[in-house]
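Case study 2.
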Amino acid sequence: MDEILLIFGMTVVTFGARYPILALVGRMKLSPSVLRALRYVPPAVLSAIVAPALIAPNHQIAITPTNAYLIAGIVAIGIAAYRKNLMLTIGIGMIVFLVWRVIIGG
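Prediction:
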């Protein structure tokens, strides 16, 4: 029962924090500069989520060739910049990660 109340409470807080802003913005006309700036929000959020996992996978900074997360991330960034294909980037990144883990014995 406590879990249900917790989930309900989190739903109310999340909805209450986001809906008023979305309702207001839906009725306002945003300037082109604001719209242009908002295009950078998803990549910034994704980078903030992914970067710590690449650099410190075990909660310690590991910028070494034995860090398969970092190596696969670097390769994925290169593929994404070169080909601009999401599925190709994910697939090659996963393959590099798995192969690198086998090579280094992780």
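The CA atoms of residues 72 and 94 lie 7 Å apart.
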